[in-house]
């Protein structure tokens, strides 16, 4: 059982037509979706399934444990759309855009702070990265760097490389806690042109200018070898 993940190629898609293929794991599985499932530190999408006058609230989206290539849409309440139902999938557009802006901003942080990443969280309200280092961080310098990279309007895009290419370039992997999925023969890499290149399956803006005003709200020393940077939106 497989769900076609339309968001991998186009993060701007906010809706699609789909068919309910199964029930399970607290929700429904679809043959295709625009909903990103929680993973890689990024929260899952929420939204609605719509069939005529009927609407079902999608409270979260997750990868299926029973079917690794499928995506589960958790539904509010006990009534689920029957298997075989044709539905319109619509995501919460504001939530998606917040995820796209924050996720791309974390890639800028990776460019400014060249240390391994050992923790990540991207939500609608904030983003954080934990860096494996004992070096002190300069909050004002990081903020200035983010402002510069956003203003420079670097194009953002993705491409696919083979697992052999990734093995030949192990330095592309910055994360200590999340490794790129194996066994598919290829790996998706996110490129902020001239700034950052690393494996990533999340949703992003198409240009750093779209990130808009983002602020370093906090820098924390979480342990002897961990420094945390938290981002929020200005205003």
Automatic annotation (TrEMBL):
It is found in: Cytoplasm. Keywords: Hydrolase, Ligase, Metal-binding, Zinc. It comes from the Bacteria. PROSITE patterns: AA_TRNA_LIGASE_II_ALA. Signal peptide: none annotated. InterPro entries: Ala-tRNA-synth_IIc_core (IPR018165), Ala-tRNA-synth_IIc_N (IPR018164), Alanyl-tRNA_Editing_Enzymes (IPR051335), Thr/Ala-tRNA-synth_IIc_edit (IPR018163), Transl_B-barrel_sf (IPR009000), tRNA_SAD (IPR012947). Its cofactor is Zn(2+). GO terms for molecular function: alanine-tRNA ligase activity; hydrolase activity. Residues 1-229 form the Alanyl-transfer RNA synthetases family profile domain. This is Alanine--tRNA ligase.
